[in-house]
Amino acid sequence: MDFPKERFSEWFDEVLEKAGILDKRYPIKGMNVWLPYGWGIMRNIDNLFREVFTRHGHKEVYFPLLIPEDQFRKEAEHIKGFGGEVYWVTHGGMEELDVKLVLRPTSETAMYPMFALWIRSHADLPFRIFQIVDVFRYETKMTRPLLRVRQIHFFEAHTAHEDYEDAERQIEEDIEIWKEIARKLALPYVLNRRPEWDKFAGAEYSIAADTIMPNGRALQVATMHEYGKNFSVPYEIKYLKEDGTHEHVCQTTFGMSERLVGAIIGVHGDERGMKLPPEIAPIQVVVVPIPSKKKEEVMREAKVIEEELSAAGIRAHADLRDKYTPGYKFYDWELRGVPLRVEIGPRDMEKGGVVLVRRDTGEKEFVERDVYIERIRALLSEIQEAMLRSAEEEMRSKILVTDDIAALREHAGWGKVHWCGRQECAERIKEETEKQVLGTPIGEMGTKGRCIICGEETEIQAYVAKTY
Ligand code: ZN
User: Fold this and answer.
1) Gap from CA of 141 to ligand 1 centroid (Å)
2) Residue-wise pLDDT tens digits, 394-426
């Protein structure tokens, strides 16, 4: 499979189809069918969210999908941001509803009236919940599977705090949580504090994790928002303080979506197809029998290996399909990105071992049966680390540090440029290069320099990129 960076979208669509991730022939634009293998990846990521956020003190909830219009319209800024892209339910059967209902585009307006009932005193804070649900946005731009859709598989965490400082501590913790998740997904990223004009509707500020796709575009894969009291005032979420007075809570959210699957497929793709990080691969090890002779025994042995690996807690699958050659099976599982292949043939059986083949590097080795499970464990964790390392290098190689607008225009990847922080200058960059300022990088020290547009002295070195 050809992997031309300039024809990345065709490659992406082809992989989604051949690897059995999604079927986009469903007759509603921007809504796709998850297929078993793709859903297996998504579910592993959901379980990772569950595990990490639960460990960090969040509890899982599940809210209704529909939101009454009056409840939806309470926070003005939020509605300005979302009002134009929601789906409305206007009828119940044949009758027109008295109060129209919104399909949640995100769940602030569903949750916060309930928060007002649940949060009574300082003893209830901090309050942390999350849910994994689908959200709906009437996307008017061109839709793309996983990257820009109208029904979005979504993770959202919502927290409430006594004061702004405690909400800020939550954002700090969110950054740590994100680091852990990104590591397990083997995703390289940059954290950017979005410019004022590009923050989430209703937020004080927004921090986004952006990763780079093979065509050089930026893909936003996670966001954290500080709300301050912007929602707690209109939704009247108040608590009783120790001194007997009432105070509005400060709030934060953290959001991620099925875009992460798109990011993993894109970032780790190559001419043979997908490469999945072992942490989230539905199948970590595929066992392919090579029965040149003694077919029965070899097939049986492949099954035994699958069982031994499964018993050891490794997600393994023996490909015993009769109608396909081993060569076809190699191709098929490489395309689907299975991190490690075990080959077993009559000669390996005589020698008392198996052959292991890495998907990421193609390296092969023979290992004896009495130590093969430990070796597979070690290799899976090595592959996980190596995939992250090579993706990070790839990302860095696509970033051009420059203060020359012509060079920035020509460059296919991201730029890193000095920027004074003003909207006019960001707009000029966009006009001249089609690249957008992603914001102020978090956790990176800028060097002194002059704004690429106005020449004013600044220490902000912003990433600029075409975006999805
Ligand atoms: Zn400037």
Assistant:
1) 30
2) 999 999 999 999 999 999 999 999 999 999 999
